[in-house]
Amino acid sequence: MFVTGATILHADLDAFYASVEQRDDPRLRGRPVIVGGGVVLAASYEAKSHGVRTAMGGGRALRLCPHAIVVPPRMSAYSAASKAVFEVFRDTTPLVEGISIDEAFLEVGGLRRIAGTPREIAERLRGEVLERVGLPITVGVARTKFLAKVASGVAKPDGLLVVPPDGELDFLHPLPVERLWGVGKVTAEKLHARGVLTVGQVAALPESTLVGMLGRASGRHLHALAHNQDPRRVRVGQRRRSIGAQRALGRSTRTRHDLEAFLAALVDRTTRRLRTARRVCRTVVLRLRFADFTRVTRSHTLIQSTDDTQLILDTARRLLHDARPTIDERGITLIGVALSNLDRDNAIQLALPFDGTPAGTLDAALDGVRERFGTSSVTRAALLGRDPGLSVPVLPD
Q: Site (Substrate discrimination): which residue positions (predicted)?
């Protein structure tokens, strides 16, 4: 169905991890909070006002905001809060597309007669999330997914912004180019070097000029977004294509043992989430970002689907070993693991020979301990004394 009104909501929890910590500990409310020590996983708006940002090194963050309170991450608390918020989303409309643990698109175009206008629905949604879950949430409302997400970004924190169809370009074009999806530091620098600072200036350029500056895919993508051309609709019931985790490493030199320890922590967390979701994977993906901002992805597809932590870790270690010469040459600032080619866990075909030992016994036991006593209750010896520093974007089930 073609929808012409501003009926797409982008709902985005504000400083999610930090907000959960402030909700659960009244002593943290109104104070600058940093989640994660070695690397900032999240920062409250009180900390952000001092320049603290996600993925920033912990030392730099504390220099910017010396009076910040640093708390360790509690992934189980964030997961529970996310599930509660998504229940509010689904009580609002059946058309919910989760895009991360703390944000989603909602289509409300068919609810006018029973629930009111999109603005009224968005206002009620914000009140329900605050009342039922105790968290602030920002909502952007627009005709396209792209513009709804931009609107929520402009409205943060704890705001609501509706962009009417007849005012889309008037709203969009004065914004800085960084508001366009896909414009990171490198792309922004290329645009700025040509004197292109606003979305309106991007829109004024011919598509061929942008393609010449940024390449075919990026040039066409930004040209379309600068004119608010985004035909994607809210899609429900999309199967999760991958489960992943990553760690920002900052600019510090990392030894081989450091990287292997971080990799083990990432694999432990992703395989646990894989089993919780009752999934298995066939492909293990290693993602690296180097000090010169270039990225590389290496992957290996297994003969058979699995949820076995050790098998997946061994595969990831081989991928890391193969990438070692490039790491030594360029330096590394981020390491990530993703598990893809997912299937239901009952899709595993048992392999011969059988040795009589139940598969995954150790994994299941460790999962149970961590579920009951917390994610840090059992850890690898190589990780003792290290900050977990994990960023795990996972869609709620």
A: 17
